[in-house]
Amino acid sequence: MSNDRKEPTGAGAIIALLILGGAIIGGMMGQPSIGLLAGVAAGVLIAVLLWLRDRRK
Predict the structure, then answer these.
(1) CA–CA separation, 28 vs 42, rounded Å?
(2) What global pTM score does this model have?
(3) pLDDT by residue (tens digit) across 34-47?
(4) I want to staple 39 with a disulfide (CB 3.0 to 4.6 A). Which of 9, 19, 29, 45 is the partner?
């Protein structure tokens, strides 16, 4: 009984870290809201790319 399907990669931690990092970097630059939004955008982009990679396998 071999199962060729691989478990999907989770991206929740990546999204959370990028949100926090974006807020911190944005706060240091005087724009925490923009940093937070940039972190969300980057996290979602990486999550979608990981999902697409897992979907091909």
Answers:
(1) 18
(2) 0.78
(3) 999 999 999 999 99
(4) 19
What is the tally of helices (H) and strands (E) in the chain? 2, 0
SS3 9: coil
Radius of gyration of the chain (CA): 15
Tell me how far apart the alpha carbons of residues 34 and 51 are, in angstroms, rounded to a whole number. 26
Q: Could you write out the three-class secondary structure of 37-56?
A: HHHHHHHHHHHHHHHHHHHH
- For 4-31, what is each residue's pLDDT tens digit? 667 777 888 999 999 999 999 999 999 9
Q: Could you identify the residue written with the tokens 């990028």?
A: 18
Q: Determine how many CB atoms are found less than 10 A away from the CB of residue 15.
A: 18
